[in-house]
User: Which sequence fits this backbone?
């Protein structure tokens, strides 16, 4: 017994090339849609991961202290301000604080660097707390120093390459006669840690006569903590500056928002094109079958049957196109990733486009909904054909 | 923060373009060439590695001639070397070539300025870290290498460090930095061997 | 089965007027006619005499402009009032089978699917049994899995007849059923119609230019300029 669905399916196979091209159009739109939905989801996750990689949600620095190595380098090492070590304890006293890691940035002039000397920055860290917060740092060679006053150093990947150091090598601390042994070289992490030379915080304090001084504190708070309120509280400490990673995140998000709007507009256009494509294909097919549809009505087909028949065709087209597009977007995820990366002002390090089954189903759902909407006009047009008109005319007309 | 992002992207781009092994080239070729060859009018740079030129066999040959094995991350067969061919008008007047050499405090970069016959005209440390670096970088020290060539270094054995023949007169400028002094001699020998094996000098 | 006096179609003063610009064309111009159950009627007449239009009106495929039409005791059209589309569809399902000159088979469906096409829209018991009976009677049982393009013209028209009869209609309407066939195939179709009328008792109304076919009908109705002659 023929079914409406079977008739619809066979009809699509009648004009194979046209159906295929329509499916390709829908597949491309689905690809764009899946990739963009995947991007929306992936970018957020990826950005969060990057921020979490910092290990702490709040960075406390001495007022006026540049908190990132890049600024330090550009400023030539001037303008470093210090906080007393005791501030660590007062921060720790707050029950909301889960972990605290003190850091001491030191910038020195190395006369052996380059032609006429250059600036080298060290980061003094606490071996007991810092590695725990930066779990993403993986070693190429060796390990972290284990004593707080060890005469040892760990090199970031780029720093090791630049200085040509490997584990076991000695390193002469500039502006002093002190030798430290390289005990670890980190793998490339894609963060500014790659260019950093890590020393135990006590060692930096001792060698450079900075007893009881630090430049910043990384603070990790409980998950339940209201960050904004906590930051306000921190400002009660004198002469400190609070750098919130939430703020950082927001700044980046704002930067990306513009790019996102642009990308979404492209998606919208792609979807509209697919919609018009589906409508055109199905409408053409209705006009070509004007008489067939009239005959069906003379044989007892109700308006609703014809409407359904034409709708099934759109559903089939969009369903197949949606699946093809989803598979395509999954296969091409890496390419899409690169493509999006090229237009964004800042891209996190991990995958930008994250596609999963749920997302693909969502996209197929959206595409099918769009297909159904674009199928309404042709279906309505077909449904209201009167048998006599169809029999009398040779072809349909708009 | 925007700058940090930019820095990260820059790092990523740069790091992807880098060679697997760290090479040895002049930081500022225009300036350095002019200083080592004041009368030069131009130069061409050629890139070469042991792997590319002769693979494992060449590495074995170089190690045998050197009298020592290659060691460490920065002395491998795939290190890309840069050879600067120096021109005076259209005439080749010499070469500049540098090698990585492990010293007491990490890598030393030993550059030689050679004439076309392979005779040393000058010695230049692009990178060296130790307390006595200043005396190593001095003209007085470099002068002691002037006029020497492969034949003077042929019998030098880096593992014993014994200086014989014309090498005997080269003096260590800082007793404390004996290790870097020996490293320099090894680096110069390696430099000359590579220049011969790469076919630039006889 | 013989013809009895029970009326199946009654028309009174039926008119169909087409308006083309300022011109009014009286395609059917006040025809009054009854068709009895089991009757075999042929409409004949020159081209443009209104016979096809009349057939369409009787088959409830088109609405008249004036007059009344009653089919199987149901008022289809009377005093400008027409049965609604839904009831009309039901009426067509129940009472009518249509055969057209151009066959109108669906090219993507097999012979069997074409014959059973009406049941894509509604259910009927013993559909398969009836299909078997019809295809054997019409001599197309061996062609069931073929596509229309693989059939001859005569076979195509027999498939169209089978499709028209699949719902066991009371009335078979045929518009130039042999118009696209050679004389041999026409004679075949003519034989089939006579058989259907005599053995199955189906009321047949057809429009034709074919004398042989017209003569095989029990009653010939001649039209000219939209009027009975």
Assistant:
């Amino acid at each position: 017994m023929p079914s409406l669905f079977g008739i619809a399916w066979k009809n699509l196979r009648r004009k194979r090339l046209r159906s295929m091209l329509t499916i390709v159009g829908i597949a491309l739109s689905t690809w764009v849609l899946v990739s963009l939905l995947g991007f929306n989801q992936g970018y957020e996750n990826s950005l969060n991961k990057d921020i979490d990689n910092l290990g702490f949600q709040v960075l406390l620095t001495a007022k006026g202290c540049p908190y990132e190595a890049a600024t330090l380098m550009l400023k030539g090492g001037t303008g470093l301000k210090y906080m007393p070590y005791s501030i660590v304890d007062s921060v720790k006293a707050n029950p909301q604080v889960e972990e605290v890691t003190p850091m001491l940035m030191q910038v020195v002039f190395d006369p052996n660097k380059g032609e006429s000397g250059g600036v080298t920055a060290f980061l003094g860290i606490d071996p007991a707390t810092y590695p725990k917060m930066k779990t993403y740092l993986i070693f190429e060679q060796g390990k972290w120093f284990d004593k707080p006053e060890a005469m040892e150093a760990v090199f970031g990947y780029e720093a090791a390459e630049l200085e040509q150091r490997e584990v076991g090598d000695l390193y002469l601390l500039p502006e002093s006669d002190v030798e430290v042994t390289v005990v670890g070289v980190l793998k490339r992490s894609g963060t500014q840690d790659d260019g950093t030379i890590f020393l135990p915080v006590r060692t930096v304090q001792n060698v450079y006569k900075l007893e009881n001084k630090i430049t910043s504190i990384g603070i990790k708070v409980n998950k339940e903590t209201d960050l904004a309120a906590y930051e306000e509280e921190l400002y009660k400490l004198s002469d400190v500056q609070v750098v919130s990673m939430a703020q950082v995140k927001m700044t980046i998000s704002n930067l990306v928002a513009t790019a996102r709007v642009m990308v979404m507009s492209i998606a919208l256009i792609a979807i509209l094109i697919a919609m018009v494509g589906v409508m055109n294909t199905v409408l053409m097919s209705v006009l070509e079958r004007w008489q067939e549809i009239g005959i069906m009505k003379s044989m007892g087909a109700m308006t609703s049957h014809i409407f359904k028949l034409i709708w099934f065709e759109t559903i089939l087209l969009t369903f197949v196109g949606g699946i093809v597009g989803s598979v395509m977007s999954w296969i091409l995820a890496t390419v899409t990733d690169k493509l999006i990366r090229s237009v964004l002002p800042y891209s996190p390090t991990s995958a930008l486009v994250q596609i999963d089954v749920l997302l693909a189903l969502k996209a197929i759902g959206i595409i099918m909904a769009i297909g159904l909407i674009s199928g309404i006009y042709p279906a309505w047009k077909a449904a209201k054909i009167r048998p006599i008109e169809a029999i009398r005319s040779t072809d349909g007309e708009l | 923060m925007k700058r940090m992002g930019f820095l990260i992207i820059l790092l990523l781009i740069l790091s992807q373009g880098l060679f697997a092994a760290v090479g040895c080239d002049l930081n500022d070729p225009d300036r350095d060439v002019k200083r080592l060859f004041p009368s030069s009018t131009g130069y061409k740079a050629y890139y070469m590695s042991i792997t590319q030129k002769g693979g494992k066999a060449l590495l074995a040959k170089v190690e045998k001639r050197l009298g020592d094995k290659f060691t460490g991350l920065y002395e491998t067969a795939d290190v890309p070397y840069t050879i600067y061919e120096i021109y005076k008008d259209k005439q080749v007047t010499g070469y500049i070539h540098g090698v990585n050499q492990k010293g007491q405090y990490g890598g030393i970069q030993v550059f030689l300025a050679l004439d076309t016959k392979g005779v040393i005209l000058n010695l230049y440390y692009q990178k060296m870290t130790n307390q006595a670096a200043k005396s190593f970088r001095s003209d007085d020290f470099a002068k002691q290498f002037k006029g020497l060539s492969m034949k003077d270094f042929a019998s030098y054995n880096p593992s014993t460090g014994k200086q014989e023949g014309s090498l005997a007169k080269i003096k260590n400028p800082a007793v404390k930095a004996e290790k870097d002094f020996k490293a320099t001699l090894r680096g110069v020998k390696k430099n000359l061997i590579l220049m011969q094996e790469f076919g630039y000098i006889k | 089965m013989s013809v009895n006096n029970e009326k199946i179609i009654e028309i009174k003063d039926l008119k169909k007027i087409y308006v083309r610009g300022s011109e009014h064309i009286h395609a059917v111009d006040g025809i009054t006619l009854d068709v009895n159950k089991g009757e075999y009627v042929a409409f004949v007449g020159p081209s443009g005499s209104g016979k096809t239009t009349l057939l369409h009106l009787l088959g409830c495929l088109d609405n008249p402009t004036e007059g009344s039409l009653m089919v199987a005791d149901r008022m289809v059209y009377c005093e400008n009032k027409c049965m609604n589309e839904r009831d009309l569809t039901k009426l067509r399902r129940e009472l009518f089978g249509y055969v057209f000159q151009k066959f109108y088979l669906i090219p993507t469906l097999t012979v069997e699917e074409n014959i059973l096409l009406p049941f894509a829209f509604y259910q009927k018991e013993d559909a398969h049994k009836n299909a078997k009976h019809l295809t054997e009677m019409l001599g197309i049982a061996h062609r069931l899995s073929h596509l229309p393009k693989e059939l001859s013209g005569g076979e195509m028209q027999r498939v169209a007849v089978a499709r028209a009869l699949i719902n066991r209609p009371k009335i078979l309407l045929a518009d130039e059923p042999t118009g696209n066939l050679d004389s041999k195939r026409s004679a075949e179709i003519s034989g089939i119609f006579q058989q259907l009328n005599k053995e199955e008792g189906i009321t047949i109304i057809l429009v034709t230019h074919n004398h042989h076919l017209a003569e095989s009908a029990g009653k010939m109705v001649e039209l000219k300029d939209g009027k009975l002659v």
Residues 73-77 of chain A have pLDDT under 50 and may be disordered. The two ends of chain A are 32 Å apart (CA to CA). The CA atoms of residues 221 and 227 of chain A lie 8 Å apart. Chain A touches chain B at residues 68, 70-71, 110-112, 114-115, 158, 161, 163-166, 169-172, 177, 179, 188, 190-192, 194-195, 248, 251-252, 255, 345-347, 349 (CB under 8 Å).
